[in-house]
Design brief:
Layout lengths: L10 H4 L36 H7 L8 E5 L6 E2 L9 E3 L2 E2 L23 H5 E5 L2 H10 L8 E3 L10 H4 L1 H11 L4 E5 L8 H9 L3 E6 L5 H7 L6 H13 L4 E4 L12 H11 L3 E3 L9 H12 L4 H11 L18 H16 L32
Parallel strand pairs: 1-5, 3-6, 6-7, 7-8, 8-9, 9-10
Antiparallel strand pairs: 2-3, 4-5
Protein name: PA0069 family radical SAM protein
Pfam families: Radical_SAM
Keywords: Iron, Iron-sulfur, Metal-binding
Length: about 375
């Protein structure tokens, strides 16, 4: 049976949706949920020849990952939210194979006329000319360096990066022109690029946050099915710290009664591995993420689903989601205040600062113009 969103869901969420009958191994959601711009709905129909019974008995292979190449017109996005500390961001991919069920970026696949459910984690858009566009942005006379974060709406080191190397190409451009950047990832794949990141960190041009959502491998396998295991992320924190890279931990999202009880233990483990800073954001359920998460919750934790949602609504003004600036990243009410106090006290106890590393913007060097006659501007020969 298709999942029915709660009564306080938006009209777009409350419409009939096509649903995959069973969970798919290695995927966060098997649900091809209709997106909010979709004007066509699918409905199974029995034609009298037993087609529905036949289909139910057939073996369906799980969808494989499809990489769709895109040549982006621009690569740097400006941040319009006062809740976020960085000014600009770069996302080398759209969609993410990690399949985290809670990912707030899932609804962005709607703009591509793709499902925020299974499509988000199986149809990955790769911006193959990202490095080229970044260099062009730097060459613009109007460009001024500002705080830049990589991987805000996708993981820049998701599995396809091993083959395509788009993120590495971006970091090469950043290193070439002395432009600082920060990054959030839950992948150990970042270790591959330490030869670029560590020298930049030594010049105060790079910092990294590892997302460690849980220390429980069983929970991680269904919550973030294709991301690195928790122990592997802690080892990556250690590797980065030993290489001299300022590294912090993000315990986000914090989900009541699931990973929320682990908050202090995660911070302690991250600090022991070498993390220097920490932050945490309570679970957000924008647009299609709401029914996707509630469906996942009912499948995997039916015994506590009602408690989880009741606590979330308590800190979201009685709603499933609160999109307002000023409260969307922290929540409100007694429980939100308690979480903030726990984070503050645990961070102090384990020597984790709440302040982000301030990187040096003064080292940026604009690309040298190439005159029509060849050679670089300013060179005689």
């Amino acid at each position: 049976m298709p999942f029915k969103p709660s009564t306080n869901a938006t009209p777009a969420q409350a419409q009939p949706l096509y649903v995959q009958a069973d969970s798919l191994k290695g995927r966060g959601s098997g649900w091809a949920i209709a997106h909010r711009y979709q004007n066509e709905l699918r409905e199974q129909y029995d034609d009298g020849w037993g087609s529905l019974v036949q289909e139910a008995g057939e073996e369906h292979l799980p969808p494989s990952t499809q990489i769709i190449e895109e040549r982006a017109k621009s690569i740097i996005s400006s941040n319009q939210s006062p809740d976020i500390s960085f000014d600009t961001s770069i996302n080398p991919y759209r969609g993410c194979e990690h399949g985290c069920i809670y990912c707030f970026a899932r609804p962005t696949h709607s703009y591509l006329n793709l499902s925020p459910g299974i499509d988000f984690e199986t149809k990955i858009i790769a911006k193959v000319n990202a490095a080229e566009r970044l260099r062009a942005s730097f060459a613009s006379p109007s460009y001024q360096p500002r705080s830049l974060c990589i991987g805000t709406a996708t993981d820049a080191y998701q599995p396809v990066e091993r083959k395509l190397g788009i993120t590495r190409a971006l970091i090469e451009v950043l290193a070439e022109h002395g432009h600082p950047f920060s990054m959030v990832t839950k992948s150990s794949g970042i270790e591959r690029d330490l030869d670029l990141i560590a020298p930049m960190a030594a010049r105060n041009l790079a910092s990294v946050y590892l997302s460690v959502t849980t220390l429980d491998p069983a929970l991680a396998r269904i919550l973030e099915p294709r991301a690195a295991a928790p122990h592997r992320r802690l080892r990556t924190i250690e590797t980065l710290a030993q290489a001299g890279v300022p590294v912090g931990v993000s315990v986000s999202p914090l989900i009541p009664f699931l990973n929320e009880p682990e908050l202090e233990r995660i911070l302690e483990a991250a600090a022991a591995a070498g993390a220097r800073a920490a932050f945490s954001i309570p679970l957000r359920l924008p647009w299609e993420v709401n029914p996707l998460f509630q469906d996942w919750l009912q499948r995997h934790y039916p015994d506590r689903a009602a408690r989880v949602m009741a606590r979330l609504r308590e800190m979201r003004g009685g709603r499933d989601n609160d999109p307002r600036f000023g409260s969307r990243m922290s929540g409100e009410g007694l429980w939100a205040q308690l979480i903030a106090q726990r984070l503050k006290k645990a961070s102090q106890r384990f020597g984790l600062t709440r302040e982000r590393v301030v990187l040096d913007l003064s080292q940026f060097r604009r690309p040298t113009a190439m005159p029509a006659g060849g050679g670089r501007q300013g060179e005689l020969f």
